[in-house]
Amino acid sequence: MPDSTWLTGRRFRRAGTALMLVSIVALAGCSSLGVKPWERDLLADPDMQLTVSGVDAGLDDHIYFSKEASSGGRGFGGGGCGCN
Amino acid sequence: MQLTNKDKNGKPVGRALAAATCALLGVQATNTLAKDKPGEWDVETALLVYSETDDRVQAAEPVISATRNYDGDRKLNLKLIADTLTGASPSGATPSDLPQTFTRPSGSGSYDVPAGEPPLDDSFKDTRVALSASWTAPLNRDYTYTVGAYGSKEYDYLSTAVNGSLSRYLNNKNTTLTGGLSLGVDLVDPVGGAPVGLSRMPLRTNKTEAQFDQEFALTRESDDTKTLVDALFGVTQVINRRTLMQFNYGVSYSSGYLTDPYKILSVIDDASGANFGGNLIESDGNPVYLYENRPDTRMKHTLYWQTKYMLGNGDVMDGSYRFMVDDWGITSHTVDLKYRWKLDKSYLEPHFRYYLQSEADFYKRYLTATEYNGGTPVLSEASADYRLGELTGLTFGAKWGYRFDEDRELAIRAEYMIQTNDGDEGFGKLASQDLYPDTNAMWLQLSYSF
After folding, report:
1. Contacting A residues, span 8-67, partner chain B, CB-CB under 8 Å
2. Containing domain of residue B128, as a range?
3. Would residue B10 count as lying in a domain?
4. Which residues have CB under 8 Å from B39's CB, separation 6+?
5. In chain B, how many domains are there?
6. What is the pTM of this model?
7. Residue ranges of the alpha helices (H) in chain A?
8. Where is the composition biased (Polar residues) (chain B) (predicted)?
């Protein structure tokens, strides 16, 4: 096996090992994410909801749907009017 | 704000996650402040007034959304929206060094556009009424489902959809997995009938009314339908005491009549860059405008990431990024940022949004006489709709809200959007015309929840 190929192979193996380590760390990190039931005071604040006002979001989605070629993302989008 | 509940799993976050699920579904449940009291209706009302500069689209849109809570977990949401649109909309034709005359979409009557002016179709007006309903309930301790229906009617368009989703709580309700599906059928019934794609707009000049009527009839098809299937997969994750995140992947497939029946393209003479005088039908000598034609299917993929973070002083930051790609050649990036600055009983929330879009493969600002090819276009699809072109949008806004008590809130919101288009600048005489005028729009919204 030529040296350069061997080096490339070794790089791949190293990259694979690194990726595996990162994945393990990430998974371990995910399992420690979150809060205990008694730590939910701030998240319970209505301003911490992902969509605080459904009416605002719905109106804006309708405007942008009518003016752009994109829709959706947050929820089902892209329908319901003949404006695009 | 804690409410008594038998579920020892911490209801507030359950609520937030249920609301997140609704948001994920586009159900947009209305939860503000200390709502969710069993046996009560929570109502959110709003009036939106939307206005574009240069006498373009003006709209007024009242909304009422009511949520009935049967207990902490089971909810019925009903939403009614009406909107009235008037004004003028860009037709897709290019401005010209000569005055131009266009046939109205209905075929009855024409409208004129002065030299150098952007061709706007001022016969644009519509009234729409939309109603949606959704029901959310737990299946058991770990699963919640939502089912919903939607219907809207406007003069030339009927839209119906049903949707459903299932959410699974994991990791002590710190993680929610959601899968949802929406099926829609729309009926498109354009004024005057749907035009045959890439057929020539009949013009009255130099013709009898009988000749015109005959020509017009030849460019018409009957009404048409389109079907939409959307699937959405989402993960909502509590990161820590102050941070909540959501990741969504959505795929959307639409098929059927996806063309805009009111949009046209100008045909430009290859040599002069001026409107091409056609002689397709009995050498009528009029310029040539073609009705647009889009593909009859579209597949979109969307990635969405949202983060909410509460600062030490109680202010809340809200940031989201959306990436979209479709098989029409369009990719788009959307960044949305809000900062909720909490005052005593009120809040002030500045808002910024940035949008960037690439053009569709079949987007053409105009067609040349060569492409028109004497009435047998060399293209099968083409659209000059600026919304399918290269587009940048900036929105700046702010919302101010006042909370009287746990239930009642009054809010006012203002947004200003600047859209700029870019693309082929034309040649010859066309190069001196502004082919990409900006779109500026402002909307004001007054809301009251109780």
Report:
1. 30-31, 33-64, 67
2. 77-449
3. no
4. B69, B70
5. 1
6. 0.88
7. 3-31, 54-67
8. 88-109
